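Raw record, unedited: MMPL family transporter
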Amino acid sequence: MPLRRLAYLTLFLLGLLTALSMFSVAQLRFNYNFNDFYPAGDPDLDYYQGYTRRFGNDNDYLLLGVEAPTGKTVFDPAFLTQVDSLTQLARRQRNVRHVTSPTTLANPVVEGLGFFNLPYLHPTEPGRRADDSTLIYRTPGLVGNVFSPDARAVALVLQLTPDLEKPPGDSLFATLRGGMARLGLPEERMHFAGRIVAQSVFVDRLKWELVVFMSLSVLLVTGLLWLTFRNWWGVVLPLIVVLGAIFWGLGIMAACGVSIDLMTALLPLMLFVVGMSDTIHIISRYVSELGYGASKKDALRVTIKESGFGSGLSALTTSLGFFTLMTSTIRPIHNFGLFTGIAVLLAFVLSFTLLPAMLVLLGRPQLRTPRRQGHSWDGVLGRLFRMVLLRRRLIFTVSGLVLVGAIGLASRVRINSSLLDDLSKNDPVRLDFAFFERQFAGVRPFELELKPVPGHDIYDLAVLRQTERIESYLHHTYGLRFAASPVTLVKSVRKALHGGGLAEYRLPADPRELGPLRRKLQLFRKKPEFSALVLPDGSAGRLTGRMADVGSIRADALNAALRTFLHTSIDSTVLRTRLTGSSNLIDKNNENLTLNMIQGMAIDVAMVTLIVLALFKSVRMTVVVLIPNLLPIIIVAGVMGLAGVNMKVSTSIIFTIAFGIAVDDTIHFISKLRLTLSKEPDIFRAVRHTYLLAGKAVITTSLILVGGFSTLLFSKFDGTFYVGLLIGLTLLFGVVAELTLLPLLILYFYKRPKVGLPQAPNLVADTGRS
């Protein structure tokens, strides 16, 4: 089949596949499911899911904080009228199951055969304001939960439909904000916190940032391609290839039913900058051959022959860098690694099918400065190679010092995360969450399941006393600011039966006093506030609460101390407990981060080692290749330690991705060196020729990669910001090592029999020869 006809057929088939991919991409949806970040397959996750079926989800709530006007307290009648109107509005919403509000709270009292709910607040009776405030601030469970300690703010706690998704969540937000505006409550005095807040904000920002990053990357890469090739086809062709790979990758993701989340949103940008590598190597080699006087057909044949092997290996190592993320138990990271790895391989396929087809159909390009004796890049790279040889001792010395310093600083990196890690400290959402930590109990949920041993139920006095002891420890030692448990129910009912006096808010003194209380409790067992804390048959209970978001390091220490307390101070023949909850699962992710990162890096290093061994049959050469690629990783780890950047879910992917991408240029270099060595017996001349041949593509691809990742610096997500910054730095250090350390290490350690390394003067003099 004639070459042009084959090219047309290739374009037709690839165009058809791209159209199908674009149809699938149109079905993609954005999603931020908090539950996706739990460690998949973990026994604690299975236990937590059963726990939520028994007692409900611990993060299906919305906190709505309202500050009183300047100079007034929360007991101001006009302010309480606004709060009550907002409460009634929230109660009428379809996805709101229950509202705890200061204007609806009541002190239950049982007198004779009557049951009364006495309100804590009497806004229409100014003379009772002092008594109301005194009672409220003496009643357990109100201050820090509904009223702030300084009486300057109140909080409404909205219990929502389980696992409320974004559209109804956004509708609820819009209704509440509209109601606040009608009531004259300014936005600066309103604060929201809860899972659906983060869900709404994250998804909206994902959509916006995806558009911004891709636009910036296209502009940046287009500019760099133009500066490199100075031809329209040198810009347009790589863009077509990479955009096609992006559509293919997203199309496969959509066909598998995977949504775009915080991690997979990086796939288009990641592929856009990474996928450029093969196209640039192909076009650079093609232009070089044309510049040396080859015909278009011969130039394309040589390019495919010499670039195909190296590009295939580099695509393999880069995709492996992403595939190793599949070892993560966190589903978004797993999906990101899987589909980005697949997309990298698709980019390689398109680079060696679509790009050659377009080059065949295009006429011979007019080169800016065609010359038979080489290009201007040859002179630049020749001088750089000469300088590297002259400064080789300095390069080795500086590299060693930097390595030692980076290892020392890297030891300072800590694995730590909080609930809103990916939002900057000045983000309005994070400031709202900080408001609840400052004025109320906090936003970090706490969950402990209470399981009486056989022969007891949750209302047995011995069980209640053990539970009360746990509550006391959590309040005074652990740092829990608000707690509710079966003990809360028993104390509340006892207080109601004894006239509502605060002195009666305590456990019964003996089993005889407990008997009547148990009968009363059975009457309320189906009420939401009871069923949320105790199973109807009394076989298990729940101790739930909220606290400040102290971070995973502090939380691990607190939980370790709590487990010790439960083991040594709680009678296990009466009550058994188990720590659970969404926060506990998020913290557990940190235990897996280091293991997953080490596994990913080990797989990457092992695969690169096997590739180099297969190419050169030399252990020395393997070490030579690994050193300039591991050194930038260690340096960036040192930068993290120096800057105080913690290892967390979003930053844990940096090292495996960076290594997989950084080794790409090394693979191209050594594959070209292998081809050169088959023709050139002298190792020095082979290295120099390879340096001149591959240098332009190495520098260009590195600039595009660094520039592409630098667009992530505009992200409002801290995790995305650090991914861009740290991977960009890794690649920047990597290209420096590639152009300095790698050739020196090859010259010093990869020696053929009876071929010694010439003395320095000869090396330097030799660089002046063509």
